[in-house]
Design goal:
The protein is an alpha+beta fold. It has three helices and 13 strands. Strands 1, 3, 6, 8, 11 and 13 form a six-stranded antiparallel sheet that branches. Strands 2-7-12-9-10 form a five-stranded antiparallel sheet, with no helix packed on it. A two-stranded antiparallel sheet has the order 4-5. Strand 9 and strand 10 (188-196) form a beta hairpin. 23% of the residues are buried.
Length: 244
């Protein structure tokens, strides 16, 4: 059996041991705990790299979306959507006809609706000292009652001007006579003149706007010089009939 003094020593030792344990727990006698430098560096690396990864991913996703104007996922469509647009020519309005082009038409090159036997085409014809291409001569005896030297063209209201030179054919075998030249529009006489071989070529220019038909007619006796129509032509927006 332990005496009281021994028990007291043992208790003292126990208390001292407990005191050491408590001191160690409180950190008094033990060394202070040091952080792991390797773990801290790892955390710092993640803190730096992670935002960069997020930025790179965001940029990779955001660029196609910014360039995609129409929501299409096709890159070619994205490129096409930013190309400058070129204005296209609007289609012609339905029912609108193109504006006609006005020009001169030689009457002898187009079929007449009336062409009597006394008229012949000659190229050229000489009236006085002048020569004219694409012309007409009245060969037959012709009168108001027997209109052998006569021709009519259909204009369909598309012509504005009639132009020609008139007179006697300088190369006729007969040298006498006076011929009468008559021009009518839609059955109404608008011009007439008498010419002989002594007369120079007379220029004739008439307004025939809106005329449906134009007629050339001349009178001549059988033993007289031929009547000559030098280069009769019309200014129209369409031809005065089909081509010969």
């Amino acid at each position: 059996m332990k005496d009281k003094n021994q028990e007291a020593g043992d208790n003292s030792t126990q208390i001292q041991g407990e005191s050491v344990t408590i001191n160690n727990y409180l950190g008094g006698a033990a060394q202070p705990r040091r952080d792991n430098p390797t773990g801290r560096s790892r955390y710092m690396w993640l803190l730096v790299v992670a935002p960069l990864v997020v930025v790179v991913i965001g940029v990779a996703i955001g660029i196609p979306l910014l360039g995609r104007r129409d929501g299409s996922s096709d890159p070619a469509a994205n490129i096409a959507s930013i190309q400058p647009s070129v204005p296209s020519t609007p289609p012609p309005t339905a029912g609108v006809r193109p504006k006609p082009v006005t020009g001169w038409y030689e009457l002898v090159q187009y079929r007449a609706v009336v062409w009597n036997n006394g008229f012949d085409i000659i190229d050229p014809v000489r009236i006085g000292a002048q020569s004219f291409p694409s012309s007409i001569v009245g060969n037959y005896a012709s009168s108001a009652g027997d209109q052998m030297n006569k021709a009519t063209w259909a204009l369909a209201g598309a012509c504005t001007t009639l132009s020609m030179w008139i007179g006697k054919d300088a190369d006729s075998s007969y040298q006498a006579g006076v011929g009468r030249f008559v021009i009518s529009v839609d059955g109404r006489e608008i011009f007439s003149a008498d010419r002989s071989l002594r007369d120079a070529a007379q220029e004739v220019t008439l307004d025939i706007s809106g005329a449906v038909q134009v007629t050339l007619f001349d009178t001549r006796r059988g033993q007289e010089a031929r009547n000559a129509w030098g280069r009769p032509r019309v200014e129209c927006s369409s031809p005065p009939g089909p081509k010969r």
